[in-house]
Specification:
With about 280 residues, this protein is α/β, with parallel strands linked by helices. The chain has 2 domains: about 90 residues, 3-Layer(aba) Sandwich (Rossmann fold); about 130 residues, Rossmann fold. The chain has 10 helices and 11 strands. It has a 6-stranded parallel beta sheet with strand order 1-11-8-7-5-6. A 3-stranded parallel beta sheet has the order 3-2-4, sandwiched between helices. Helix 7 links the parallel strand 5 and strand 6. Helix 1 packs parallel to helix 10, helix 6 packs across helix 7 and helix 6 crosses helix 10. The protein starts with a strand and ends with a helix.
C-alpha cells in the first residue's frame, strides 16, 4: 500500500520567491519599474488578511505594493474609474482586484476592465483564453500553482490520465487546458457528471477544485495516484472552532496516494508565488 508523500507548497513557493528576488534586483538595477497595485472594495476580513499577507510577500522580494481601498458602497463606475487610471499609469506594472466584491459591483465586468498586460492574476477573459494558445504567463495563478505542484513530483504528464473535479472559469478549466497542452488525457467533471468516483478511480492524477469538504475520499482514488487539492473550505471542528480544509479527506487519501497536496500549505502558498511571478513577468515584458 502506498503512503503519500506530502507536497510541501510552502517550500516550493520559497524556492520560486528566492529566484524572483534575484530577478527583481536585476530589473531594478536596470532602472525598470516594478509595482503591483491592488484594489480592495469593502471590509471583507478574508480579503483584507490576504491583502496584508500580499504586501509582506511583495516586500520580501523587493516589489513595490500599493493597496487602494474603496468603501463597501462604492459603485461599479467608481471601481472602473480607478482601474482605468491604474491602467494608464506606466509606473504601475501589475493590477489585481480582491474578491469578493459587493453585490452592486459585477466581478466579470471588473476583471474584464483590467489591462491585459497588467492582469497579474490572469482573470481577464483575454488572458484566460490565451491558455488555449500555450501561454503560461499572465494566466490564472491557481491554475499555474496546480501545474507547478504536479511537475514537482516528477510524474510523467504525457499520456497520464487526469481528472479535474470542478470546472470553474478561473481554476478548473484553465488547469484542464494546461494539462492537455502537457499531452495528458484529461477529463473535466462538474456537478452534472454521472458516476464521478469511477472516473477518479481510473485517474493517475486527480485535481479537485470543487469547494466541497471531503468530496474526495479513499474510495475515490486509485493506489499510487497523485492528488492535488485546490479546495479551501471553512468548517467547524469538534470543539466548535472553524478550521480550513480542502476537498480531499487528507488522512484517508494519503494512505493510497503517491503524492498529495495539503490544505493549508499546498496550492495556497504556490498561488501567491505565481502571482508574484506573473507580476515580475508583466514588468519584464
Amino acid at each position: 500500500m502506498a503512503h503519500g508523500i506530502v507536497i510541501d507548497g510552502k517550500a516550493i513557493a520559497s524556492e520560486v520567491k528566492a529566484k524572483l528576488k534575484s530577478r527583481v534586483e536585476a530589473l531594478v538595477q536596470e532602472g525598470r519599474s516594478i509595482r503591483l497595485d491592488a484594489i480592495l472594495v469593502g471590509g471583507d476580513q478574508g480579503a483584507r488578511l490576504y491583502a496584508k499577507n500580499q504586501a509582506k510577500a511583495c516586500e520580501a522580494i523587493g516589489l513595490v505594493y500599493h493597496l487602494h481601498e474603496l468603501p463597501t458602497d462604492a459603485t461599479e463606475s467608481e471601481v472602473l474609474s480607478l482601474i482605468e487610471s491604474i491602467n494608464k499609469d506606466d509606473a504601475i506594472t501589475g493590477l489585481m482586484v480582491h474578491m469578493p466584491l459587493p453585490k452592486q459591483v459585477n466581478a466579470e465586468t471588473i476583471q474584464s476592465a483590467i489591462a491585459v498586460t497588467k492582469d497579474v492574476e490572469g482573470v481577464n477573459p483575454a488572458n484566460i483564453g490565451n491558455v488555449v494558445f500555450g501561454r503560461r504567463s499572465l494566466v490564472p495563478c491557481t491554475a499555474l500553482a496546480v501545474m507547478e505542484l504536479i511537475e514537482s513530483t516528477g510524474v510523467k504528464l504525457e499520456g497520464a490520465n487526469v481528472v479535474c473535479v470542478g470546472a470553474s472559469r478561473i481554476v478548473g478549466k484553465p488547469v484542464a487546458v494546461l494539462l492537455m497542452q502537457a499531452e495528458a488525457t484529461v477529463i473535466s467533471t462538474n456537478h452534472h457528471t454521472k458516476d464521478r468516483p469511477s472516473l477518479t478511480r481510473a485517474a493517475d492524477i486527480v485535481v479537485s477544485a470543487a469547494g466541497v469538504p471531503n468530496l474526495i475520499g479513499a474510495d475515490d482514488v486509485s493506489e499510487g495516484a497523485v492528488v492535488i487539492d485546490v479546495g479551501i473550505n471553512r468548517i467547524e471542528n469538534g470543539d466548535g472552532k472553524k478550521i480550513t480544509v480542502g476537498d480531499v479527506d487528507f488522512d484517508a487519501v494519503k494512505e493510497k496516494a503517491s503524492y498529495i497536496s495539503p490544505v493549508p500549505g499546498g496550492v495556497g502558498p504556490m498561488t501567491v508565488a505565481m502571482l508574484l511571478r506573473n507580476t515580475v513577468q508583466a514588468a519584464d515584458s
